[in-house]
Every structure is written in C-alpha cells, then in structure tokens.
C-alpha cells in the first residue's frame, strides 16, 4: 500500500495551534488536544473498572479461566460489528462528533448497570457488552476526527499525542480504583459509582470543546496540494455530487486491495493478543502479588505507554508506521515468553510491564495512522471501523481459545503457545503488507 503525504495549502483555514510561516508551531491541533482530554477522562473511568474486574470475577465470583475468557472477550469484541455501524453512520450523516458522543454516553451509563447486575454472571456479561457497545460506536468517529484535524504527514504525531493523553487516564484509573477500595473497604460498588461520575464528565468535555470538521473539505485541500492546483478546486473533490455513501460502498471497501489487506492483517494481529486480564493474572499468580496492589500492574503498563506513545508516534512518521507496528508485536511476543520463562521477582515484573506498555505504544494509534491515508475520505470512518472490528472479533476468539488452553494445558504452556502464535502472525503480516508498502515520505519545507 502506498501512504501518500501532502502539504497543507496556504489557503486552508488556520488550525488552532498552527502557524502559517511554513512550519507548524504547535505539536498538534486544538481539536486533537480536546479529543485527548475526553479520552483521558474516559479512560480514568474505564480503567477503574478494568483494574478490578479480573479480581471481581475470578477471585470474587470464582469464575473458571474459560468463563473469564468469555467475559474478557465480550469486553473487547462482542460488539465489534457495531464499530462498522457507528463508522458508517458517522460517514452517512457526516456528524462524527454526534456519533462519538452517543458512544461515550452509553459507556458512562453502563457503569451504573454493574451495580444492578450484582453477582449474576449473565447480567455482568450483558452490562459489559453495553459498555463495549459504547466504545465500539465511538472509536472510529473519534479517530476520524483526529485524522480530519491533522495533515497526513503528521498523523503518527497526532495519534501519539492522543494516545499519550489516553494513557495518562489509563495510568490514573487503577490508582483511583485502588484509592476507592482502600477508603471504603474493598467495595466494588463504590468503584462503579465513581467510575460513572468521571465518565459523565468526559461527555461534557466532548460536547463543549470538540469541534466537528468536514473531512471532505480537508481531504480536498490535500488533493489540491498534491496536484498543484489552486484553491478553486471543488472542496468535495472526493464527493463531487455531495451524495451520501451507501451500503454497497462499504462492501466495496473490502474489494479495494490495500484496504482489504490491512483489515485482514489487523484481524490476524488481534488473534495473537490474549488480553490484559490474562497477562496480569499470570503475573499475580507467578509472583503472588497482594490483591490490594493488583491494580498497580495496569498502572505500570500505562506508565510505559504514556511515556512512549508520543516519541514512538514521531518515530513512526520518520521511519514508517509498518515497521513500528511490527516491532510492537515483537515486544508482545517477548512479554509472553517472559511469563513462562525462568525470570522471576522484580526483574520479571519490570521487564514484562515495560514490554507490554511498549507494545501498546507502538501499535494502538500507529495502526490507525497507518490506515488513515489508505482509506477513501468519504468512507474513512467506516474503513477505520473495519480495521478495529477485525481486531476486536479476533480478540474475542483469542480470549476464548486462551481460556480453553489454560484449562487444558495450564497457564505456562498456554502462554508459550500464544508466543508462538505471535511469531507466526508477524511472519504472515510481513508477507501480506511489506511487498506493497512504502513509508510516508517526509514533508520538505
């Protein structure tokens, strides 16, 4: 796939936080910062629940590894298809902010549903599905807003900054959860109520500070610059008649070879990912981590993530996004090997969490930055949703299979098989994407 890059034309309306002297003064646009703030607040809420959920289900409700794998898979993948619905709806009505806001609000309300579910595993699974429905609906429109607010040559930087802010929330969430548990005597209900209040604040920030942008206008300006044409070119070059995209075009995306390869590769990579809950449970099991300090495992991962997300995003813009994504999954494979290897004690905890945080920093936003320029502007949100859906569905399958492997072969053998799967998937991804890949050329001032 060829990821083209163009300079922003001087006739483009000035972006918040940008200079017009030939170089950008600000690191990213104001819209990216606003979206990052929403993600930061929302991730505090989400990670409060994520940090205590494995303990609540496995140690509190005595779920088997297979049952936990099903719930964990539902948490990430059961509503995956709704990502495509959300992405298509945002492209159809051209209101990505509205669709993203609905998703954020739905996830906030779901936090209260955990109070009503009590100890019923089916009800907990249903509430978790509603929460992930909200995440599925909002993710692609949010990333499309970031893409529309950023010139193509700076997408790695923009997603890096956004994911850094997101990771700050992920870092703070488990700490807040731990503080609540210490203050009220391990009351999970108190964690869920606090999580809801924080999530509601994120929705307010989205409504007040995030600006909607017309992606067709932005991309038409980029087309003008790449063709050397002036500002007189129609602002809807990719959509000259102003027609709204139809369902047929969504299926047409998968007939486009670069987009299809990217979606398949994302699904394969998702299939090799067993999930945070299993990683932290394995660490807790091996090192006998006290249950009070269990949330700090997620804090360690998030700390590494927030420190590396922006530098790795800048690196991806410089050397290419595909090599960075592949390097991230290599770090994941090494993490799995460590969990079944001879290293123990503090060295294991530090190395495993550092590599796991590096994996997220090198893959989460960078994969979307890789996808953005490949996708047609009028269906960009839908295309991003397809990539995310492929990963999420594969993650659902992976979680169930890993739960089965844990029960059948034991945790150490199961994680060794997962490491082999990462190596195999990396090889397939290279064979699939590398022959057609060229890195984004750097902008020449």
UniProtKB/TrEMBL annotation:
<feature type="transmembrane region" description="Helical">
    <location>
        <begin position="190"/>
        <end position="210"/>
    </location>
</feature>
<feature type="transmembrane region" description="Helical">
    <location>
        <begin position="415"/>
        <end position="437"/>
    </location>
</feature>
<feature type="transmembrane region" description="Helical">
    <location>
        <begin position="25"/>
        <end position="46"/>
    </location>
</feature>
<feature type="transmembrane region" description="Helical">
    <location>
        <begin position="346"/>
        <end position="371"/>
    </location>
</feature>
<keyword id="KW-1133">Transmembrane helix</keyword>
<dbReference type="InterPro" id="IPR011701">
    <property type="entry name" value="MFS"/>
</dbReference>
<feature type="compositionally biased region" description="Polar residues">
    <location>
        <begin position="1"/>
        <end position="10"/>
    </location>
</feature>
<feature type="transmembrane region" description="Helical">
    <location>
        <begin position="66"/>
        <end position="90"/>
    </location>
</feature>
<protein>
    <submittedName>
        <fullName>MFS transporter</fullName>
    </submittedName>
</protein>
<feature type="domain" description="Major facilitator superfamily (MFS) profile">
    <location>
        <begin position="31"/>
        <end position="438"/>
    </location>
</feature>
<feature type="region of interest" description="Disordered">
    <location>
        <begin position="1"/>
        <end position="22"/>
    </location>
</feature>
<feature type="transmembrane region" description="Helical">
    <location>
        <begin position="167"/>
        <end position="184"/>
    </location>
</feature>
<feature type="transmembrane region" description="Helical">
    <location>
        <begin position="392"/>
        <end position="409"/>
    </location>
</feature>
<feature type="transmembrane region" description="Helical">
    <location>
        <begin position="322"/>
        <end position="340"/>
    </location>
</feature>
<keyword id="KW-0472">Membrane</keyword>
<feature type="transmembrane region" description="Helical">
    <location>
        <begin position="262"/>
        <end position="281"/>
    </location>
</feature>
<keyword id="KW-0812">Transmembrane</keyword>
<dbReference type="InterPro" id="IPR036259">
    <property type="entry name" value="MFS_trans_sf"/>
</dbReference>
<dbReference type="InterPro" id="IPR020846">
    <property type="entry name" value="MFS_dom"/>
</dbReference>
<dbReference type="Pfam" id="PF07690">
    <property type="entry name" value="MFS_1"/>
</dbReference>
<feature type="transmembrane region" description="Helical">
    <location>
        <begin position="293"/>
        <end position="315"/>
    </location>
</feature>
């Amino acid at each position: 796939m060829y990821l083209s890059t163009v300079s922003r034309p001087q006739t483009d309306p000035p972006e918040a936080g940008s200079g017009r002297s030939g170089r950008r003064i600000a690191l990213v646009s104001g819209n990216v910062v606003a979206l990052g703030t929403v993600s930061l607040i929302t991730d505090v809420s989400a990670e409060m629940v994520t940090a205590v959920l494995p303990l609540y289900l496995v140690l509190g409700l005595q779920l088997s590894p297979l049952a936990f794998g099903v719930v964990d898979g539902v948490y990430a993948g059961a509503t995956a298809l709704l990502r495509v619905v959300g992405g298509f709806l945002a492209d159809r009505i051209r209101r990505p902010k509205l669709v993203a806001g609905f998703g954020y609000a739905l996830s906030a309300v779901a936090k209260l549903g955990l109070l009503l579910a009590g100890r019923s595993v089916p009800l907990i699974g249903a509430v978790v599905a509603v929460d992930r429905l909200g995440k599925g609906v909002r993710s692609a429109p949010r990333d499309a807003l970031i893409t529309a607010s950023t010139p193509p040559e700076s997408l790695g930087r923009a997603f890096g900054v956004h994911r850094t802010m997101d990771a700050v929330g992920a870092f703070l969430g488990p700490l807040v959860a731990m503080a609540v548990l210490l203050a009220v005597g391990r009351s999970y209900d108190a964690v869920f109520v606090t999580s809801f209040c924080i999530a509601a604040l994120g929705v307010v920030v989205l409504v007040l500070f995030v600006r909607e942008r017309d992606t067709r206008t932005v991309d038409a300006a980029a087309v003008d610059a790449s063709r050397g044409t002036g500002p007189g070119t129609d602002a809807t070059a990719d959509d000259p008649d102003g027609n709204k995209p139809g369902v047929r075009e969504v299926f047409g995306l998968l007939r486009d070879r670069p987009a299809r390869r990217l979606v398949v590769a994302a699904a394969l990579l998702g299939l090799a990912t067993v999930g945070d809950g299993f990683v932290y449970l394995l660490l807790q099991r091996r090192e006998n981590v006290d249950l009070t300090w269990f949330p700090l495992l997620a804090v360690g991962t998030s700390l590494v993530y927030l420190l590396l997300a922006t530098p790795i995003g800048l690196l991806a813009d410089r050397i290419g996004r595909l090599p960075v994504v592949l390097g991230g999954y290599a770090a994941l494979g090494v993490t799995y090997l460590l969990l079944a290897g001879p290293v123990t004690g503090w060295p294991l905890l530090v190395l495993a969490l550092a590599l796991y945080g590096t994996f997220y920093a090198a893959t989460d936003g960078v994969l979307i930055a890789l996808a953005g320029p490949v996708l047609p502007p009028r269906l960009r949100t839908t295309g991003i949703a397809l990539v995310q859906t492929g990963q999420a569905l594969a993650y659902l399958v992976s979680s169930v299979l890993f739960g089965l492997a844990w029960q059948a072969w034991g945790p150490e053998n199961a994680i060794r098989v997962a490491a082999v799967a990462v190596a195999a998937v990396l090889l397939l991804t290279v064979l699939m994407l590398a022959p057609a890949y060229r890195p984004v050329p750097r902008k020449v001032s």
